[in-house]
Specification:
Elements lengths: L8 E9 L5 E8 L11 E9 L2 E7 L7 E4 L2 E4 L5 H17 L5
Antiparallel strand pairs: 1-2, 2-3, 3-4, 4-5, 5-6
């Protein structure tokens, strides 16, 4: 019988819609083992957007490592912890909403 590799375990998922129809959503998986581009052992995707357009995003897609998106720009992100990741993401979302969505 072939040996199957362990799969990532979903740790958290959250989704909400603001009254203006903007969406905030995130999902975090615990990987079976750390990888070169995910040394902390987590895969994640944090999204805030409206009308199908990402306005703020944090993710670590394979080959790119940890980074964030603010509008159309992409910046490196230094992962410290899941708690700090969520805090940083929400801080950027609040800043975007407080500025009237103009970045």
């Amino acid at each position: 019988m072939p040996k199957t590799s362990p799969k990532a375990e979903r740790l958290s998922y959250f989704k909400m819609r603001y009254p203006d129809d903007a969406i905030l959503e995130y999902v975090v998986w615990k990987l079976p083992q750390p990888t070169a581009d995910r040394p902390h052992g987590y895969k994640y995707r944090y999204y805030y957007g409206k009308d199908g357009k990402r306005l703020v995003g944090y993710d670590n897609e394979s080959g790119k490592g940890d980074h964030k998106h603010i509008g159309d720009a992409e910046y490196p992100y230094t992962f410290v912890s899941l708690e700090q990741l969520t805090k940083d993401f929400l801080t950027d979302v609040v800043a975007h909403r407080n500025q009237g969505g103009i970045w």
